[in-house]
């Protein structure tokens, strides 16, 4: 079943829910009260990923070779310059 849900962040998103009616109804109520849409969720994840890290722009090859265990900034890959923004832990 697809539902139009008004998330607590103020955005509306179509969400697919499964399971018994009562369970779906509770989930929607939760979304409306404290859930956030997928776009805001991604933004929040970006912030969480960047905590304690420096944003370093580097060549994609370097990232693969030396920093492949680090998180990258979503959509930061630049096909022209072949660089990507990597969250490098400050302590490293
Ligand atoms: Zn949102």
Protein model, in words:
This protein has 92 residues and is α+β, with helices and mostly antiparallel strands. It is built from three helices and five strands. It has two domains: 40 residues, no CATH class; 38 residues, no CATH class. The strands form two sheets. A three-stranded antiparallel sheet has the order 3-5-4. Strands 1-2 form a two-stranded antiparallel ribbon. It is elongated, with a radius of gyration of 18 Å. Zinc ion binds next to helix 2.
Note the topology:
Blueprint: E1 2-6, E2 12-16, H1 21-34, H2 38-50, E3 53-59, H3 60-66, E4 71-72, E5 83-89
Antiparallel strand pairs: 1-2, 3-5, 4-5
Residues 7, 9, 11, 36-37, 39-40 line the site of zinc ion (ZN).
Strand order of the largest sheet: 3-5-4
Q: How far do the termini sit from each other?
A: 47 Å
Strand content: 25-35%
In the predicted model, the low-confidence regions spanning at least 5 consecutive residues are none
What would the principal axes of the Cα set say about the shape? elongated
Radius of gyration: 18 Å
How many H/I helical runs?
Answer: 3
The major β-sheet equals: 3 strands, antiparallel
Bound molecules: zinc ion
Task: Give the tally of β-strands.
Answer: 5
What structural class should be given to the helix and strand makeup? alpha+beta
Helix content: 25-40%
SSE string: EEHHEHEE
Number of domains: 2
The residue-averaged pLDDT reads 96
């Amino acid at each position: 079943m697809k539902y139009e849900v008004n998330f607590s962040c103020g955005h509306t998103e179509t969400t697919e829910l499964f399971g018994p009616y009562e369970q779906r109804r509770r989930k929607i109520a939760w979304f409306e009260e404290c859930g956030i849409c997928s776009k805001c969720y991604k933004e929040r994840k970006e912030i969480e990923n960047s905590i304690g890290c420096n944003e370093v722009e580097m060549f994609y090859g370097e990232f693969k070779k030396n920093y492949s265990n680090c998180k990258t900034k979503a959509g930061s890959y630049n096909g022209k310059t072949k660089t990507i923004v990597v969250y490098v832990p400050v302590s490293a």
